[in-house]
Amino acid sequence: MTFKSTSGPMLAGLIDEPEGEVRGWGVFSHGFTLGKDCPAASRICKQLAAEGVGMLRFDNLGLGDSEGDWGNGSFTHKVADTVEATRFMADRGTPAELLIGHSFGGAAVLAAAPDAVGVDAVVTVAAPFEPAHVEHNYDSVLARVMEDGHADWMAGGKSLTLRKEFVDDVRRADLRQRIMQLKLPLLVMHSPTDTTVGIENASDIFNTARHPRSFVALEGSDHLLTKKGQAQRAARIISAWAHQYLID
């Protein structure tokens, strides 16, 4: 299915329909340049669907099957389009009580949650406390971007255009106030051995948040949750934790 992004192009998504009794619905925000079909997104959403929680996962601007140019997006766009995804779910009669984000998507759901439609609980998986943490992904072209205004950049086998506007936007992003004002139950999940986004990020998010808040260590997991059973385990934990916040 598709829905319109806040900047105009259509975003492509799919819904993993809940099996058996419907317990609730959610929206999943993927990592930096990963897309809706990456292991973390697809496996977590499929496992949640198997446990009765239907999930929308979608490609951000210019990624996967979505229209537009990734280079015209920003963290602000990602946040706004996450809010739009919750509005889409509400409009179709399946409001998303659960908002889940992995990595950069975890930062996005923290920023989006106060404006999201129908959301009752938020989950972050391997999320950075500061969105600008993603700079390590493109540090090889950063100087050229800041000097020329843009540069071509390879990410996961894809050729993308990184623009100075994106860098400036992500550097301005500050999650501290958003987290402090969340007023929603928060589950923070992170691996102590995550070498991409360190465990200290989870500590910063958790310590900034107010109760009700929970933390689960995904010991043995890598950042992308690619090893066998890791994403499914995370989903089962999310399912159990979120049970009281889902529809009756």
UniProtKB/TrEMBL annotation:
<dbReference type="Pfam" id="PF12146">
    <property type="entry name" value="Hydrolase_4"/>
</dbReference>
<dbReference type="InterPro" id="IPR051044">
    <property type="entry name" value="MAG_DAG_Lipase"/>
</dbReference>
<protein>
    <submittedName>
        <fullName>Putative redox protein</fullName>
    </submittedName>
</protein>
<feature type="domain" description="Serine aminopeptidase S33">
    <location>
        <begin position="23"/>
        <end position="154"/>
    </location>
</feature>
<dbReference type="InterPro" id="IPR022742">
    <property type="entry name" value="Hydrolase_4"/>
</dbReference>
<dbReference type="InterPro" id="IPR029058">
    <property type="entry name" value="AB_hydrolase_fold"/>
</dbReference>
